[in-house]
């Protein structure tokens, strides 16, 4: 496990503690020199150093109140959750600040793993933030985790393909059905994430929300929540997925495709349309600079809001991101809350967007001149996040998502019977009658 420590006027990379989690936990719980400021440990998601930079700035600016250690979590959300659940279930006091994926915040809060923010702290932490990210940090009308970074999927399209098909993806009423028809007419593909993993749940949930439905009724009821995919919205979502998967517009690897598979197909000769996160544009520009992608492909990339399911109803773009919470068993919880306020300040969130390519949860970040110079689609990203639809905010999200992606996979098998089968499976899993 990689450990980096920051303090007033100091920076050092500590030793790697491999294969000794209990020893590491014991060492961490005793961090801090005798008589000196306490060391706060932040379990952060991997990045290119942006979180470490923010931690160093806050430690140096704390007036000697605290030092900060960065512990890097696994690269994927599942691994992050497993590590933190095990540690927090064991009441690990070394966890002062923890980065939590937006889909797991409700689970952690409901389990008592996070210390709730006070009303005063909540007001300061969320002032100026877009409402959708803030909602992902709430549980039982209380803020348990403050948005650290946010995200929303966009529609990416090849301008030449859209023009040849006679469609305008930037039109407010542009739908999935129109996109499929356009792609088929031009012999092009629609890139999506159809592998049996979280990215597929993102797709299913976004279609259902965009159609005016939801995955769960009374999600806050936990195991007593009611699955409601067998609805007009759920049936339309199934129709869209099945029609695409069985069409010539589906990539051959759709049932195994994740974000990077979709991006590779989109940038290739068969690329027409794609649903993916905002990093796509920067990645394409970087590839062109490196000489691995023709600049003509980059120039041909357009972007628009997530497509509508129904022409008269705005879409609900998929919402992603991560939140920051205070570990419930931290010995320095008030200082940990202060650290979160510091690392989450508007200027730092804006700089993180520039340095790491991770969209900010603050509305004002998108008016920053440097952000607008870097992001041609800054307004679209802000609008998409502001009006994005979260995945079900339930403490049993893992069970719900697992049951849905299992029932709806592979995409080519999805039909009008899938929503009803899915509802029954989700209900059985929540009730403990069946296992994933």
Feature tags:
4-stranded mixed β-sheet, 2 domains, 436 residues, alpha+beta, 43% helix, 16 strands, D-Maltodextrin-Binding Protein, domain 2, single chain
Q: How many discrete structural domains? A: 2
CATH class of the largest domain: Alpha Beta
Number of strands: 16
Radius of gyration: 22 Å
Overall pLDDT score: 92
Poorly predicted tracts of residues: 1-33
Helix/strand class: alpha+beta
Give the proportion of residues in helices.
Answer: 40-55%
Count of discrete alpha- or pi-helical segments spanning 4 or more residues: 19
What does the largest sheet look like?
8 strands, mixed
Strand content: 15-25%
Q: Which shape, going by the Cα principal axes? A: globular
Report how far apart the termini are.
30 Å
CATH topology of the largest domain: D-Maltodextrin-Binding Protein, domain 2
Q: So, CATH architecture of the largest domain?
A: 3-Layer(aba) Sandwich
């Amino acid at each position: 496990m990689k450990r980096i420590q920051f303090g007033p006027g100091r920076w050092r990379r500590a030793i790697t503690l491999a294969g000794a989690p209990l020893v590491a936990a014991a060492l961490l719980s005793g961090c801090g020199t005798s008589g000196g400021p306490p060391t706060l440990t932040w379990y952060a998601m991997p990045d290119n150093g942006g979180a470490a930079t923010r931690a160093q700035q806050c430690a140096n600016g704390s007036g000697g109140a605290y030092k900060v250690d960065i512990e890097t979590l696994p690269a994927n959300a599942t691994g992050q959750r497993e590590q933190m659940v095990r540690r927090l279930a064991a009441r690990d006091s070394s966890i002062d600040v923890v980065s939590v994926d937006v889909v797991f915040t409700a689970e952690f809060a409901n389990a008592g793993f996070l210390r709730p923010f006070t009303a005063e702290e909540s007001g300061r932490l969320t002032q100026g933030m877009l409402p959708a990210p803030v909602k992902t940090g709430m549980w039982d009308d209380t803020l348990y985790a403050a948005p650290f970074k946010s995200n929303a999927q966009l529609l990416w399209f090849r301008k030449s393909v859209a023009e040849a098909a006679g469609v305008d993806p930037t039109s407010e009423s542009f739908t999935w059905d129109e996109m499929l028809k356009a792609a088929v007419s031009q012999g092009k593909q629609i890139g999506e994430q159809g592998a049996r993993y979280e990215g597929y749940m993102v797709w299913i949930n976004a279609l259902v929300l965009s159609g005016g439905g939801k995955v769960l009724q009374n999600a806050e009821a936990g195991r007593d929540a009611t699955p409601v995919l067998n609805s007009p919205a759920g049936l339309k979502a199934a129709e869209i997925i099945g029609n695409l998967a069985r069409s010539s517009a589906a990539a051959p690897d759709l049932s195994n495709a994740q974000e990077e598979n979709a991006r590779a197909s989109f940038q290739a000769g068969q690329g027409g349309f794609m649903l993916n996160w905002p990093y796509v544009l920067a990645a394409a520009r970087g590839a062109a600079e490196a000489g691995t992608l023709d600049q003509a492909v980059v120039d041909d990339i357009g972007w628009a809001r997530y497509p509508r399911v129904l022409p008269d109803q705005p879409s609900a773009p998929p919402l992603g991101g991560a939140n920051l919470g205070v570990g419930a068993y931290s010995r320095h919880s008030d200082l940990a809350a202060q650290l979160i306020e510091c690392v989450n300040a508007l200027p730092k969130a804006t700089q993180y967007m520039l340095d790491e390519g991770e969209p900010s949860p603050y509305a004002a970040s998108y008016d920053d001149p440097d952000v607008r110079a870097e992001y041609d689609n800054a307004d679209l990203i802000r609008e998409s996040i502001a009006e994005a639809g979260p995945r079900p905010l339930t403490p049993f999200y893992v069970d719900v998502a697992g049951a849905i992606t299992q029932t709806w996979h592979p995409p080519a098998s999805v039909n009008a019977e899938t929503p009803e089968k899915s509802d029954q499976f989700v209900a059985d899993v929540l009730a403990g009658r069946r296992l994933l």
